[in-house]
Amino acid sequence: MKRLSMIASALVLSLGSTAAGAQNADPHGAKGRAYVRVSVAHFFFNENAKIKLGGAPVAGGNATVEDNTPPSLEVGYFILPNISVAATIGLPPKTTLRGAGTLSSAGDLGTVTYGPGVYTVRYHLNPNGPIRPYVGAGVNWTIIFDTDDRALQNFKTSNTFGPALVAGVEVPFNQRFSLFGSVSKAWVSTNSRYNLPTPGGLVPGTARVALDPLVVNAGLQVNF
């Protein structure tokens, strides 16, 4: 939570300083206004894995997930002057799952190509002002497109679904264009299955991996 607070504060201060040079704020009401955002998002995974081999827990076994920085696209719409709905998706990145703890010597276990998606309802504290903070809640739904084997064979993992929170700020330059920054947090887990090669043959295994990503996002907003 300390890291989340520091990142959110830095985004607000950075974008807030831009407001001094911003042009006229939108004089029209926000209700009915649609927008599109293009940006770059960074995923900080807070992973933890419960791993089993042959049905038995692996003592001290864990896994790490490589952080990603994909381009993202968001479409939003104000259904009320202070309330909007938004869908945020990322260009599908590829991440690498690596062994940790007593499994660290295994190295790269497999790779996953996934499509991150967050769908939220947001409350805007000052929707027509020169600085426009907002908070929101919704769900994270991430779709797994592909998996590839490394140390593991027949590696597969499931889509994820779970709650998500978001906070951010929009700073308009004029009625058409704005800059924005946001921080979101999701609580999601994926279920994996695989076969581990051993001298005695393939041993089936499973893992439940909590991902719980913190996502920092910044870019350009186009208002319609």
Could you please describe the fold and organization of this structure?
This protein is mainly beta. It has a single domain (2-223), classed as Porin, CATH 2.40.160.20. It is built from one helix and 16 strands. The chain has one helix at 2-18; strands at residues 34-44, 48-53, 56-57, 61-65, 71-80, 83-90, 94-101, 108-115, 117-124, 132-149, 153-157, 160-172, 177-186, 189-198, 201-210, 214-223. The chain is elongated and about 65 Å long. It comes from Sphingopyxis fribergensis. Belongs to the OmpW/AlkL family. Keywords: Signal.
Give the helix/strand layout.
Layout lengths: L1 H17 L15 E11 L3 E6 L2 E2 L3 E5 L5 E10 L2 E8 L3 E8 L6 E8 L1 E8 L7 E18 L3 E5 L2 E13 L4 E10 L2 E10 L2 E10 L3 E10 L1
CATH class: Mainly Beta
Count of discrete alpha- or pi-helical segments spanning 4 or more residues: 1
The radius of gyration computed from the alpha-carbon positions, rounded to a whole number of angstroms, is 21 Å
Gross geometry: elongated
Distance N to C terminus: 35 Å
The percentage helix is under 10%
Mean pLDDT, rounded to whole units? 89
- The multimeric state of the shown protein is single chain
| Cross-sheet strand order for the largest sheet | 1-5-6-9-10-12-13-16
